[in-house]
Fold:
Amino acid sequence: MRAVVLRRGEDGYWVAEVPSLPGCISQGSTKAEAVANVREAIEGWIETARAHGQACVATRTLRRR
Structure:
C-alpha cells in the first residue's frame, strides 16, 4: 500500500500527498474527501506512467483504516 500524508493546507482544506509518486497530490474539504480524491490521483498517476512506458511497482487497492 502507498503511504499517504495528510496535512491541513493554508486555505483550510486537507491536502493528501503520496511521497512515493512524485507530484501525486490532491485535496478535499474533509480528510475523507482528500483520501477519496487522492485515490483517483494515484490511479491517474499510474495510468499515465504506464502510458509513457515507465515502470511502476506492484500496486494494491488502497484499504481504509
The first strand starts at residue 5 and ends at 8. The helical segments are 31-51.
